[in-house]
Write a structure and sequence with these properties.
Blueprint: E1 7-13, E2 16-22, H1 38-50, H2 55-67, E3 73-75, H3 76-83, H4 90-102, E4 106-111, E5 114-119, H5 121-135, E6 145-150, H6 158-170, E7 174-177, E8 180-184, H7 190-199, E9 207-212, E10 216-217, E11 220-221, H8 222-229, H9 232-255, H10 261-279, H11 296-322
Antiparallel strand pairs: 1-2, 3-5, 4-5, 6-8, 6-9, 7-8, 10-11
Helix pairs in contact: 2-4, 2-10, 5-10, 9-10, 9-11, 10-11
């Protein structure tokens, strides 16, 4: 019988052209231990070289995507091993963890010369809000109401106002004035906004109110304010660039006969890292307020398909890499399997 032909995929990454060649796998090898795919390994090297992730931000991605569902704690030595194929050396990991601890994301416990790091309650709150945006399907429905956060002009010093603006931007609010933030109402997420105001210590100085569609601010409809508050053209361009970057390697994984666990984990991490960055710029407005065609659903589907294809392999790599002497990784929490509309357990 003739051998099947190789399948080569050409794609653009940054300003360079690359290709992924999918070679036939003999049936006698299907039961063997998977080996890294050379073409995927080249894609990973080029991806890390073309757009090196910032160390602390990448650690945040790994913590939220991989570690949080398993209890939110990891030994530092295991985290260092986990980050190595993502291009971070021990010094960068230690520095990133130290900064996250100083910023209130993590707490540490020592056992001899070893340290285990765990999410703080505040760190968990931040992860839950940010990662809800990543894994939940796009929801185009809207009840026509608006959420407004009001802060008196002299109610906050500059540093607190800057932190509030950053937190509310992550929650999908646009700033329409020095003390006024607006977004289409999202009833299921109002509690998260109130929790954010409490965490910042300004819940007694800021007010969250709901108004009906058709209301206006300073004589302008709220719809006009939304178009002025977010650069939707830039957000759309980010989504399109994301799809261009990752679609070829996602298609390549779909055609491989065997998947290498480490490569699954590395590409999944880079995929979620970039998707997280784009979604945090996206106010996730209802369809009625978005220009057409809007590329976010296509980007979401790309993540969903890759996650469903590779999550079992990536989880095996995670468990094997962070395992400590006498300890194993706790099983994933039920919410992990609700990501991207549902993940198969077997």
């Amino acid at each position: 019988m003739a051998e099947p032909l190789e399948n080569t995929i050409h794609f653009l990454h940054g300003h360079s052209n690359f290709c992924i060649t999918l070679r036939p796998v003999h049936s006698t090898a299907l039961g063997a231990t998977p080996h890294p795919d050379a073409a995927v390994a080249r894609w990973i090297r080029h991806a890390l070289a073309a757009s090196p992730p910032k160390a602390k931000s990448l650690v945040v991605t790994v913590w939220g995507d991989a570690i949080a569902p398993h209890g939110g704690a990891v030994w530092l030595s295991g985290l260092i091993r986990l980050m190595t194929p993502l291009g971070l050396n021990e010094r960068l990991v230690r520095t990133s963890v130290y900064r996250l601890r100083r910023e209130g994301w993590l707490t540490a416990r020592s056992r001899g010369r070893r340290s285990v790091y765990r999410l703080t309650a505040e760190g968990l709150r931040r992860f839950e809000e940010a990662y809800r945006r990543i894994y939940s399907p796009p929801d185009g429905a809207w009840n026509g109401r608006w959420d407004l956060v009001l802060v008196p002009p002299a109610g906050l010093p500059p540093a607190e106002r800057t932190e509030l603006r950053k937190e509310l931007k992550w929650a999908g609010f646009g700033a329409v004035g020095a003390g006024l933030f607006v977004r289409p109402e999202q009833p299921g997420r109002r509690a998260a906004v109130l929790a954010t105001l409490r965490a910042l210590g300004i819940d007694h100085r800021a007010t969250l109110v709901s108004v009906v569609a058709g209301d206006s601010l300073r004589g302008r409809p709220l719809e006009d304010w939304t178009r002025a508050s977010w650069d939707l053209t830039a957000v759309a361009a980010e989504y399109s660039a994301f799809v261009t970057r990752f679609a070829p390697v996602v298609r390549a994984f779909g055609r491989l006969k065997q998947l290498d666990p480490e490569q699954c984990f590395v590409v999944r991490t880079l995929l979620i890292h970039d998707f997280r960055r784009v979604t945090l710029h996206d106010p996730q407005l209802p369809a009625a307020l978005l220009p057409a065609p809007w590329p976010a659903p296509k980007a979401y589907a790309l993540c969903r398909d890759f996650y469903r294809l590779t999550h079992r392999h990536a989880e095996r790599h995670l468990a094997a890499t962070v395992r400590s002497e006498g300890e194993t990784l706790p099983p994933a929490a039920p919410y992990f399997y609700r990501r991207f509309g549902g993940l198969p357990r077997s």
